[in-house]
Design a protein that fits this description.
This protein has about 325 residues and is of the alpha/beta class. The chain has two domains: about 180 residues, FAD/NAD(P)-binding domain (3-Layer(bba) Sandwich), CATH 3.50.50.60; about 80 residues, D-Amino Acid Oxidase, Chain A, domain 2 (2-Layer Sandwich), CATH 3.30.9.10. Helix content is about 30%, strand content about 25%. It contains ten helices and 17 strands. The strands form three sheets. Strands 5, 6, 10, 11, 12, 13, 14 and 15 form an eight-stranded mixed sheet that branches. It has a six-stranded mixed sheet with strand order 8-2-1-9-17-16, covered by helices on one side. Strand 12 and strand 13 form a beta hairpin. Helix 5 runs antiparallel to helix 6 and helix 7 runs antiparallel to helix 8. It is globular.
Length: about 325
């Protein structure tokens, strides 16, 4: 009988299930025939390929678009950065394939205590909901909206993001095919849908019927997420703060957190120490972001922070999918 119960078939839950196989069971609230994933489906190719290879799958089989450039629009300027394998992929299909050797209970919305009473270890991979461990007393959630859009004349042939003034959020435009894109945005000031619809109208896009999706994402980093463990339930993925605050990217960080738990032989104490250490740079990025939202800091302190954040980002460029160089400090500061 499986000894691990996992709540959630997102990146963290699916990947942990793939590593544990018949030692675990997954409980997913969505029904199998309607299973999907609300996000832009973008991630770093090289690290993802390595992680997926360890499950016997080939990430190349799921690729939709592999980027070369990332365009950033800010105050009328358009700045280019080199991509480092930033790709979009068929995320729902990959998640289901990762779980092919693990029993999945689709259409099962578990309550707190259900898995804890049935398994030696219960894993909370329910993202912002934290179904097993409970909501955070102090959280930082950003609402998002997204549409799948067709463009006869796409405004960009690669990835594009547009930060909002006041650092309240940003708009994204991610390629799925030659003429089909995800266009979405997140904004703490709640102007995200208005911004998205303006962008689509401006560039004469056609919204795919029934494609509107929305959810909140957690920007609070692991260092500020407590508890990560209670009784015999432990958090992984977004439930544990594994999301890069400046980009809202949580696919690979979530899977990495699951791998850390697995590599520690499900020893929760060692896992918590290692996962906090892994995502310590995310705290630095979060602290910078929240300072800017409050209008704090100055040119000198901003330059120091940006330099430090870029230095960290270079170390995990295979996760972010962006080839940031130290020389980009001045390019980035020019648009802040």
């Amino acid at each position: 009988m499986p000894s691990i119960g996992i709540a959630g078939l997102g990146p963290a839950g699916a990947y942990l299930g793939a590593l544990l196989q018949d030692k675990a069971e997954i409980y997913e609230a969505q029904k199998e025939e309607r299973f999907t994933s609300v996000c832009a489906w973008g991630t770093g190719y090289y690290r993802m390929k390595d992680l997926i290879k360890q499950t016997g799958l080939n990430f190349d089989d799921y690729i939709l678009h592999k980027g070369k450039k990332i365009f950033v629009g800010w105050k009328g300027k358009l700045i280019e950065f080199d991509a480092y394998g930033l790709s979009t992929f068929d995320k729902p299909r990959l998640l289901k394939d990762l779980a092919k050797n693990t029993k999945v209970h689709f259409g099962s919305r578990v309550d707190r205590g259900y898995l804890e009473s049935r398994y030696i270890l219960a894993v909370d991979a329910t993202g912002v909901n934290r179904t097993l461990l409970g909501r955070l007393s102090k959280d930082f959630l950003v609402p998002t909206i997204e549409y799948k859009v067709k463009f006869e004349n796409p405004p960009f042939d690669d990835f594009y993001i547009e930060p909002f003034s006041g650092y309240s959020g940003y708009l994204w435009y991610f390629p799925l095919s030659e003429k089909e894109y995800f266009v979405g945005a997140g904004d703490v000031n709640l102007n995200h849908e208005e911004k998205v619809l303006e962008f689509i109208k401006k560039h004469r896009g056609e919204i795919v019927e029934g494609s509107r999706m929305g959810k909140a994402i957690r920007l609070l980093p692991t260092e500020y997420v407590e508890p990560l463990y209670f009784m015999n339930a432990v958090a992984v993925g977004e439930a544990a703060g594994a999301v890069y605050p400046l980009l809202g990217e949580g696919i690979l960080p979530s899977m990495i957190s699951a791998k850390i738990l697995y590599d520690n032989d499900l020893n929760v104490r060692r896992y918590i120490a290692d996962v906090k250490n892994q995502f310590l740079p995310y705290k630095k990025a979060y602290d910078y972001l929240t300072r800017k939202m409050k209008g704090q800091g100055n040119a000198f302190s901003d330059a120091i922070s940006v330099f430090s954040i870029i230095r960290d980002a270079i170390k995990f460029k295979d996760v972010l999918g962006v080839d940031l160089k130290i020389s980009y400090v001045f390019k980035i500061l020019s648009i802040l």
